[in-house]
């Protein structure tokens, strides 16, 4: 079974820091804050300063993790397609769409975040588990979320590309297979929702273009004329609420 990506990165960071500490001690520098601390029974654990350094290093990966392990990708792509379908150019601006997508992602991920807090963060702060075990548990919770929203065909595709067959259970699926399969599934779902949102606006464009051509107003831009009707339709049907509801329900149903 492959090691989870988070555990591999964590182990690499620990090894690199340990090598630097050993080199400093060999040169005659005493770094007590970066030494391993002995525990009852002969076990050793990382000092608080080392754990803090590892945590700060892991925080640099948060933007990438947000994109590839949460529902942010599905939400932001759907909102971008909706803006394109309406033909409003840069309205709403990118900052507004990203902000809305972030808070919707937080709303969707709240149950998963609570589970990570209960199973990994709280035991770690209480001192009952190590930081490595906390990272392993947190990665397991995130993997469970991704597997619930990953199509089986995408999962099998990535498994075949890695040379693995069918896995015995969900716990046996490595993160390096789950993450790309999850991203592909999210892209497919986002484009499916975006296609359904695009259809009514496309119908308005076709109708307006046909009317302008019948009236001989071929020099008048159809997109300029159809824009007010698109906005009117979107306001009348309460489009933002319907879009947000559809996105949230797409996560809840799985």
Give a structural overview:
The chain has helices at residues 5-26, 48-59, 62-69, 72-86, 94-125, 131-148, 152-162, 175-214, 222-236, 239-252, and strands spanning 37-38, 44-45. It has 254 residues and is mainly α. The chain has a two-stranded antiparallel sheet with strand order 1-2. A hairpin with a 5-residue loop joins β1 (37-38) and β2. The longest helix has 40 residues, at 175-214. The two termini are 27 Å apart.
Short structural summary:
Helices cover 74% and strands 2% of the residues. The protein is mostly helical and 254 residues long.
List the helices and strands and how they pair.
Blueprint: H1 5-26, E1 37-38, E2 44-45, H2 48-59, H3 62-69, H4 72-86, H5 94-125, H6 131-148, H7 152-162, H8 175-214, H9 222-236, H10 239-252
Antiparallel strand pairs: 1-2
Helix pairs in contact: 1-6, 4-5, 4-8, 5-6, 6-8, 7-8, 8-9
Mean pLDDT: 77
Shape: elongated
Q: What is the strand arrangement across the widest sheet?
A: 1-2
| Category from helices, strands and their pairing | mainly alpha
Largest sheet: 2 strands, antiparallel
What descriptive keywords fit this protein?
10 helices; mainly alpha; elongated; disordered N terminus; 2% strand; two-stranded antiparallel sheet; 254 residues
